[in-house]
Amino acid sequence: MGDNNSPSQIGIQNQPSTVTRLDPVVNNDGSVSPFQHIANSLKHLKREAAKNSKATKELYGINLFAINMPISKFIKKYDENTSFYKSVIQKNGNVIKPKKDSFVIKAYGYIPEISGCLPFPDYEIYTKFMKLYNRTDEPTQQTGQKYEEFEKIYEEYNNRIEKEVTEMSEAVFKEFEKIVMHPIFYKYSEAETAPNPFQFLKVQYKGDFDGYHTGILVEQHQEYYVARSENVE
What we know:
Helices cover 33% and strands 20% of the residues. The protein is of the alpha+beta class. It has a domain at 7-121 and 184-231. A 5-stranded mixed barrel has the order 1-4-5-7-6. The chain has a two-stranded antiparallel ribbon with strand order 2-3. It is globular and about 60 Å long. The two termini are 31 Å apart.
């Protein structure tokens, strides 16, 4: 699966519990199909961006999953003399010498104009897995609570998480098989970390390749794609 071969190795980050409440982004209409809802969400994002920017060749999409790749690993994959390396490792349009502690964000993105015909991962399965993976409900020892009592609670929690992750493994693997079909986008970074799953992206192709499987991650938007209103807390 790209640079990592199992869900446990994927650097998935916690998705914020609060999501910007944009009506076009939240599907409150049961008569709207999931694919039409995705299209509507991206149209809304494009309209908002157009209010403050000129027309460009940039595209919008949804992050499916992303990792922070060590700069050394990116250099092994793309030689410093290639045009794509120069398109990624730069600042303000100028190619630079990357810092030792820098990294490259690698994101698989759903881009309607490019990968709209490819399968979209199951939202409910994927978000449930992320909550388990990120241990969002991990218990903490309460003030005055005996350690022995907390230890028992934590052991039960660990056992439950391991059981549920094991039970989900086959279904999750099928969703990642869908994800890796989509285009990959890279961005040099010295601080900004990989976007969260279902976060909106702005991407760009600079003609470094004949096809459209690999491009540039331009920007992460703060809005998220949400499949149903009940997923918004």
